[in-house]
Amino acid sequence: MTFDPQPDDRAARGIYRGWWVAAGCFVMAFYAWGVGFYGHGFYMVVLGRSTGWPAAALSGAVAGFWLANVAASLAFGRLTDRFGARPAVVYGTLALGAGCFALAAFEAGFLDAHWQLFAIFIVMGSAYPGLAAVAISASLVPWFKRRLGLALGIALTGASGGGAVMPPLMEWLSARYGFGPAMTGIGAALILSTLPVALFLVRPPGGREAAREQGATASAAARNKPSAARFLGDFRFWLVTSACSLSLGAQVGFLMHQIPLLQGPLGLSGATWAVSVAALSAAAGRFVLGALSGRFSLPVLAAGCYMVQALGLLLLLAGGPPALLFVASAVAGFVIGCIVMLPPLLLVDSFGAEGHGTAYGMTAAAMFVMAALATAASGWLFDATGAYSWPLVALAGLHVLASLLVLWHGRRQRSREVVR
Prior knowledge:
By secondary structure, the protein is mainly alpha-helical. It has 16 helices and no strands.
C-alpha cells in the first residue's frame, strides 16, 4: 500500500522524510552486505586456519546461512505486510550482531563443534532479510511511487559501500587486534548504528495514525491480492524464478569463495581489496542498469548482466598478474547490484505490482536455495580437484543457462503482448 504524503512527513526546509528513510536503509544495506554477504569469504579463510577444516565443511556451514534465508524471507514477507518493517529490522540488527559475537567466540575456542558453526551461520542467515532487500523494499514502498527506483538505488548503494569497506576493515582489525576483538567491535558498531534506524526512521508515512490504518486494512488488502497458486501455475513465473535463481546462485558461489580463490596470488590483504574493487564496480553498474532500463527490455538487460559476470569469472579462471585479477574482479562485480535488483523488476514487469510480495517471497526462497547449493558445491569441487578451475567453469555455466531462460521468458512475454 502506498500512502499519500502527510503534512508531518516533511522535515524542516521541505525535505521529504522518505529520503531519510532511504538514508536509513543505506545504513541497513551497508551492514547486511558488508557483514552478512561479502564477509563470508574472510570468515572461511580465518576459520579454516584456526580449525583446519576442509573447504567443503566451511562451505556447508556458509550454505546454512542461505538456507536460513529461505524461511526467513517468507516469514518476514508476511510479517512486514502485517506489522510493517520495523520488527524485522530490529530482529535483523540484534541477530546479525549476535552472529558477529558468536564468530568471535568460535575463533577464540569457546565454541568448537561443526554444528555450532552451522548454527551461527543459520542465525546470521535468518537476520539477513531483516536488513537486506526484503526489509528495505518494505520500508521504502509505502513512501515512494514514481521515485521508488531512485530510492532503492540510494539504499542499495549501501551494499556496495559495505562490500568495499568491510572486508579490508576486517582484515586490518584482525591483523592489529585479532579476529575475536575485530568481530566483537564490528558487531557492536552494527547494533549501535542500525538499531536507531529501526526505532526512529523505519515507519509508514503519516505517523501512528497511518500505521494503525495500515494494520487495519492489511488483511483485507491481502485477501484481494493474487494467490501463490496463480503464480505457481504460470510458466512465465517459473522462467523468471529459474533464471534469477541460477544467476544469484552463480554470483553467491563466486563471492563466497572470492577471497579463498585470490588469497594465493594476491595474499589475504590483496584478496580483501579485490572484494572492495568488485563492490565499488557494482555501485557503478547499478547506475548503468538504471540508465539502460528505458532503452532495452528487462529480459535482454538481464541476459547481458549474467553474461558480463560469466566473462569476469572466465577472466579469473585465465589468471595472470595481479592487475588482471583486479580487472577480472571489477568485471564480475560490475553487475552484482544489477543481479540483486533484477528479480523484483522482472516480476513487476511480468505480473504487475499486485501480489508482488507473494511472488517475490517465493522467488527469493528459490534464489536462496540455489545460493546455498552453489556455495556448497563450489567447496566440494575445490576439495575434489584441488583448484578453483572447475567451480569457476560451473558457475559461469549457470550464468549462461540463466541467460537462455530469461531470453526465452522475454520471447513469451512479447508473444503474449502481441496476442493481446
